[in-house]
Write a structure and sequence with these properties.
There is one protein chain. By secondary structure, this protein is α+β, with helices and mostly antiparallel strands. It has one domain: Thiol Ester Dehydrase, Chain A, CATH 3.10.129.10. It is built from five helices and ten strands; from the N terminus they run H-E-H-E-E-E-E-E-H-H-H-E-E-E-E. A ten-stranded antiparallel β-sheet has the order 1-3-4-5-2-7-10-9-8-6, with helices on one face. Strand 8 and strand 9 form a beta hairpin. Helix 2 packs antiparallel against helix 3. It is globular and about 50 Å long.
Length: about 280
Amino acid sequence: MNDSDIDLEYLEQWTRHEPVTRIEILDLRPAQTLSAMLNQPSAPQMGDVLPPLWQWAYFTPAPLASEIGSDGHPARGGFLPPVPLSRRMWAASKIRIMIPLRLGQTVQKQSRIDSVKFKQGASGPLVFVTVDYLYSVENEPRIAEQQTLVYVGENRGASPETKAGEPIESGGWSRRITPDPVMLFRYSALTGNTHRVHYDRDYATREEGYPGLLVHAPWTVTLLAELLHEHCPDATMTEFRFRALRPLPDTAAFTLHGQRKGDEVILKAVDADGQLAVDATALLG
């Protein structure tokens, strides 16, 4: 496929669609399930602050069975533009937390397509779709997120958006994570993520060419945020940014790293070969 096969003007029509709004009560089940996955001894209760990034366990998709594509994702052309490239990756997010959410609150989530951009990469076309999300309580903005999705047309071992980041500095905190199919299944079930690379090993290896099942980027990022919380339990996160640089398969352990520098925390996930897989930065208030 080349750039002439992608009708960017048509895809950009999705930026002019009306925002999609959903309303949901932040009940206990998703938060308590995520807490259990993180092996926390005390389960969250109604009225507790929802930890940063845990909003991803809510507003989960529930498409009709007839609307699921062969890769497990919802078929394209609904909320997301129908990009004619075979693979989609969550490449990055920028999150600003104005006021934390609390369990039991009624939250409104507004979603809109911000931009659709084309780039001709070294090995084929790329399409970047940015999506804006705004979480509000009683019309008061609480969390704003801009998410970047990248569509590619062939197997890739790393994100085409960026190269590996700077070397990991010595010192700081670290934790080794050994992923397994049960872990990945639980996170897929919690977040309604039906992409087959996370639970269908034959599909992940034979169809998409990965060495095994893939760890979800938001799960890796949630683990990084938990590492921060363990070492800075009284700090309040106000901003969080991450880039997913390369996939993390379940065939090997990976390592989380963190280091605080004043009000900034540098966080990284490094694969078994020492390559940077996720690069993140958090700001503390």
